Amino acid sequence: MSHCVKIDEIRHSLLFDSERRTFIFKGMQRQLKEKGNSRMTVKIRGPLYSMSRACEPIIRSVPEWFGIEEATVQYIRDADTLPTFIAYHEDIAIGFLTIRLHFEYTAEIHCMAILSGYHRKGVGRALQEFVESHLRSLGIEYLQVKTLSSKHPDTNYAKTREFYLAMGFRPLEEFPELWGANNPCLQLIKRL
Q: What H or E segment, with its residue span, contains residue 162?
């Protein structure tokens, strides 16, 4: 997917969070290549909280990835309580990524979704890179993600695995029963 991204400009702004006594990234703007020679500006903001209303239309636009209603509802609720990063195009939320901070040096991508019309335009890559920069600023050394294993024939999740591998993640372990026998889980990890 890296061939889809044309970065013309990146702007980060750092703010000091006095409660957490750390710097946080408040926003980033990127120019992404659309079809032809046109450019699409994507602004990324986060970490944010109470974002379920912004995330729900995005996650509901891709039922081929989020087909278990109970899990979908929980992912939407989690955007209210977990650090959430939102990608905007023309003030419309087009993608999000939520993270869990597990330990002092580790974090996990809890959920990531891109509005269906914005796939393969570099939005996921921009979100991922922004989150990684933010996590490095917190001293996080490892980032993990869980997704459907290749033992399941779902072609959409094959694309998900390809994305994470292209982003530098490596398979760490497979959990055949974590999500039930019909949904084998693959854990991938990346050193930041």
A: helix 155-166
